[in-house]
Amino acid sequence: MVVLATAWGWACGPTPPLREQGPFIPKSEAVVLARVPSVERDARARERAALRRALAQRAGQLDVALQLARMDVEWSQSQGDLRYLGRAQAALSPWWDSATPPPAVRMLRASIHHARREFAEARADLDAVVKEDPGNVKAWLLRAEVLGVQGEHAEAARSCAWLTALTSPLSIAVCEARVRSLSGHSRKAHAQLAEVLGRTGRSLESRTRALATLAESAALAGDAGKAERYFLRALALNPQDTTARAAFADLLLDARRPREAAVVVMDHTHDDRLLLRRVLAENALNSSRAPALTRELALRFEARRLRGDGAQAREEARFALHVEKAPEKALRLARSAWATQREPWDVRLLIEAALAAGQPEAARPALDFLRDTGCEDPWLVRWAERVRSETP
Amino acid sequence: MSRGAVLALLLVSLSAQAQKPSDSYLHLVDTGGDIAGRWDVALQDLDEVLGLDAGGDGAITWGEVLARQADIRRYVLGRLVLGADGRPCALVARDSLHITQHLDGAYAVVAFDARCAAPITHLDVDYSLLFDSDPQHRGIVRVGSEETAPLIFSASQHFARVRLRGTSPWRMTGHLVVEGAVHVMSRVDHLLFLVALLLPSVLRRTPEGGWEAVSDFRRALWDLVMAVSAFTVAHALTLAAATVGWVSLPPRFTTVAIALSLLVLALDNLRPLGWGVRWTVAFVLGLLHGFGFASVLAGAGLPTGQLTLALLGFNLGVELGQLVWVAAFLPLAFALRGSVLYRRAVLEGGSVAIALLASFWLAQRALGWGVSVT
């Protein structure tokens, strides 16, 4: 952490570029204007180009379309490039609007909906996939994840239970721990997953996911030291895990270590969620970079809003609450996020925004949710107590 | 900006740019008859459909973009249909391709004009860019000023009919006041008319047929302003009549009559033709010019509700332009009026010159010699 703190001093990560400079003609033909996957060096890019050519020659080839769409979804997940979600959809366009598409198309459609935070659509497709194909491990896993985010923990746990005998004990344990953690029982979740990881966990992929889940559950359980160690291990194995990185930055921000939080996300601010953490950190530090980064994030939110995109309500609510200091706006956004998702951060933001806006009664849905799930996680429990003490 | 700075800027922006779904930004402005368009389309999106990275090295250079300029324009403009009240407009690219930076990287800027049958009250926009390669693409389209809320086009919602809100009546009137003043002062025959009116206004005929200086500046000013206003009143009458479509005269007749009335005015300065000639000529010239300007207003595509205001503004501009001219030159003529030089060289010499030029125009226009000077 000392290393991280010093890093903040001299490195500043990419600064937002100058914008709104008006149209220009580059000074030289050699100027590089954009980067795309190289068909010369990247075998995947070559394969993708070949698949697109094949599909352009003859549309309606399901196997080619599936291969292309799968590739684009994976690319979007690993690179965070949202354009590829739309491209994957384009590959599947002959089947996209069908009520009964081929099962593989339906599974991909669910993944795309999930990535766009369209949980209701994702869930409808996943329900259909597991009905047709009860042995589909990926579908059960994603279904558990979607239901967990929607706050339907019992149904999510049933989804994990279906996996028994279908996949590795570690994958099932991760699934269960994640659901338990989302329902406010992070200490238990952590203990059980740690025990299974100790026994098994050969494959790197499942280990990575397990470490990130352990880190997140430790953080929610209030064990900051343990969480930090797990986050560092998880991120060393998979630096592209945006969710884990964001959660790590949040842990540091909550511990009033904004300097380290800034360094953790510094080179990943192409992702709006991570730029938000950087903005929160730089503002907490009152640094000279804060205003430019804040403006950049506000412009990004504006651009998403312009296209009618409400997927970032949670991040926007946090920005409104802590950076813009606009509690009413934050409450409105927190409520709109609450309409589709029920993760710990949604609970926390609804409560925080309601208190900041002086409308503790607006936190009622969050309190009811915490009571119904029997939440034990200390941070959420404390906030809930505070709301109750302020409600007449 | 130096080349190094541009390179540095672009490299920095490449590493820090946002990742967002695909959008294009289209801005359409009604320029009175034509629609001027600016369309920003992401290079990443153009690469997906056109394959801009010719080298295959993953870096799209300005040279690679330039080499495909014609393809880019054809592709982009081929995916927009604009119509004016149901009739399609022709889209014509303007300027060379430019580049601009948006949050998620470099965009190609395609500038174009849409030639529509004026005037447009409803603009039809049918947008079909990129939906086939990315159904999540959105077209963010602004019509009019930057402040107006944009239209969001998507694969399922790609058509809109936009009512073009013209500029506010008061702004339009202000604009036409300037137009009127500029128009009237930029016509050679009209300027000569003003000179011919002004030259003798600082003098008075003696019963013997000579000249004497007027003693009262206000009297000279009043005479001149009245003559000039007679022009404006007449001009207003025919302009209104012609714009509404009640009367129309063949242009040939109008130009001949203008030359003739200018000749009469110049001759009157040399030898008086009778009482009231100056005012009559000013009035007749006004009537004739009114026909000439009717085409200007007709071309502006004014909604009928604003016509009265438009006519008022244009005539006010004509009057103001003339008064400015009077205010600038009358004091000079008044100061010089006593000298022999003024009477002989300026008044008589000037009037002879105007008469000669008017005769030349008359012959030219009546007989159809060559091209009119005005």
Describe this structure in words.
- The complex is a heterodimer of chains A (392) and B (374).
- With 392 residues, chain A is an all-alpha fold.
- Chain A has a domain at 320-392.
- Chain A has 22 helices and 1 strand.
- The longest helix of chain A is centred in the N-terminal third of the chain and has 18 residues, at 62-79.
- Residues 13-19 of chain A have low confidence and may be disordered.
- Chain B is of the alpha+beta class and 374 residues long.
- Chain B folds into 2 domains: 3-163, no CATH class; 169-367.
- Chain B has helices at residues 3-16, 43-50, 62-67, 69-77, 169-185, 188-198, 217-244, 251-270, 277-299, 307-336, 340-367, and strands spanning 23-30, 34-42, 59-61, 80-84, 87-88, 90-102, 105-115, 122-127, 138-143, 151-153, 159-163, 203-205, 211-213.
- In chain B, helix 5 packs parallel to helix 10 (307-336), helix 6 runs parallel beside helix 8 (251-270) and helix 7 (217-244) runs antiparallel to helix 10.
- Chain B starts with a helix and ends in a 7-residue tail after the last helix.
- Chains A and B meet through strand 1, helix 4 and helix 17 of A and helix 1, helix 2, strand 3, helix 3 and strand 6 of B.
- Strand 1 (32-35) of chain A pairs antiparallel with strand 3 of chain B, so a sheet runs across the interface.
Shape of chain B: elongated
The SSE string of chain A, one letter per element, is HEHHHHHHHHHHHHHHHHHHHHH
- Could you report the average pLDDT of chain A, rounded to the nearest whole number? 90
SS strand fraction of chain A: under 5%
The SS-based structural class of chain A is mainly alpha
Q: Please work out how many helical segments of chain B DSSP would assign.
A: 11
Mean pLDDT across all amino acids of chain B: 80
Order of helices and strands of chain B: HEEHEHHEEEEEEEEHHEEHHHHH
Number of helices of chain A: 22
The main sheet of chain B comes to: 6 strands, mixed
Q: Please provide the count of β strands of chain B.
A: 13
Q: Estimate nothing, just give the exact number of structural domains of chain B.
A: 2
Shape annotation of chain A: globular
Strand-pairing-aware structural class of chain B = alpha+beta
Largest interface: A-B, 56 and 59 residues
Number of E strands of chain A: 1
Report the radius of gyration of chain A as a whole number of Å.
22 Å
| Strand content range of chain B | 15-25%
Radius of gyration of chain B: 30 Å
Ends apart, CA distance between termini of chain A: 44 Å
Give the helix level of chain B as a range of percent. Answer: 40-55%
